Amino acid sequence: MKVKHLMPLITLVAATAFVSCKQEDINPIEEMPPAQWPKKRVSRIVFSIGTFDYLTYHIEWSKQHLEAIRCTYYDGTLMGGTTFEYDGDRLSRVFPFDSEGQSYVDGAMSYCYDARGRLERQFFLIPAQQKEQSRGEYYDVVRCELTYTYFDNGKVAEVVLSQIANTDTTISSFHFAWNGDNVSSITRSSSDGSTSVVDNMQYDNHPNPLQFPMGVETMAVMPVEMLEGVLGYSVTFLSGAFCWCANNATDLISGTGHCSLQYDDEGCLISKTITSGGQSSTYTFTYQP
Fold first, then answer.
1. Engineering a disulfide at 45: which of 57, 128, 246, 248 sits with its beta carbon 3.0 to 4.6 angstroms away?
2. What does the DSSP assignment read for 85-109?
3. Cα–Cα distance between 171 and 185 in angstroms, integer?
């Protein structure tokens, strides 16, 4: 989905949402420390179909934080990616860029934290009406938000996806259950009832190389198409990474197929192979020296 720069008024709406978030994050009480990045940092992930290396994800770090993810095709052509911004040690804004390197800042996702430093809300804009199909321009957007609530132990209990127009409209809510530091099940509730998204997920006892701070993969683990353009092409692999979890999932979200993992001498994941429907695909991990 290509989205050209939106009207200045739209940019103002997004900026206003972000400023209002910042005003709430004052006088922290029992503030939680920022989420820790993995000690051994991934620098590249190659996605292969059979023996064909189809996509490569280049993961760029600053001294302390994840800075950007670029995705390239097998021939080196840029597919797109995602840029991450920070306020101190906390994520403040995430926005995608396209195959030409054009950043969609107007469609950025802004992060808001509560008094304890926990992620509380995320605001973002979704293009709603197309002005000229051939140019991919939009003249209207829908403002949406994700709101987070927590269990007493600090784990996420619920995430609510809402559309904010003339009135707030809840689209879906996601309810989480945990087994230690890993998500064991997720249930989605909407006007159509409740459905199980993930149930009884199983994990290894090795560190998850993509245990990034909450909100990096947003709710892209869910079948919510309206978030497709927010994180860009990094969703392709982050959607199945379960970034919140401490360990690596050993079974598949779909429940069909087989998943096998290999590790290096330090116990870090170096490959994950998924076999389903007679076809295998592999994610190969390379780390910073």
1. 57
2. EEETTEEEEEEEE-TT--B-GGGPE
3. 20
Q: Using one digit for the tens of pLDDT, what is the confidence trace for 20-69?
A: 465 444 444 566 666 667 888 999 999 999 899 999 999 999 877 889 98
Q: Is the dihedral of CA 241, 247, 248, 251 positive or negative?
A: negative
Strand runs labelled E in 118-217:
119-132, 137-150, 156-164, 168-179, 182-190, 193-198, 203-207
Instruction: Concatenate the DSSP letters of all residues of 220-244 into one string.
Output: TTS--GGGTTTSGGGHHHHTTT-TT
Query: What are 105-120's pLDDT values in tens digits?
Result: 776 888 999 998 888 9
DSSP secondary-structure letter at 165?
Answer: S
**Rg of the chain in Å (alpha carbons):** 19
Q: Which residues contact 157 (CB under 8 A, 6 or more apart)?
A: 149, 150, 151, 175, 176
Phi-psi domain of 242 (left: phi exceeds 0; alpha: psi -120 through 50; beta: other): left
Residues 94/84, Cβ–Cβ less than 8 Å? yes
Separation between Cα atoms, residue 141 and residue 130, nearest integer Å: 10
Report the alpha-carbon angle 186-190-196, nearest 5.
30
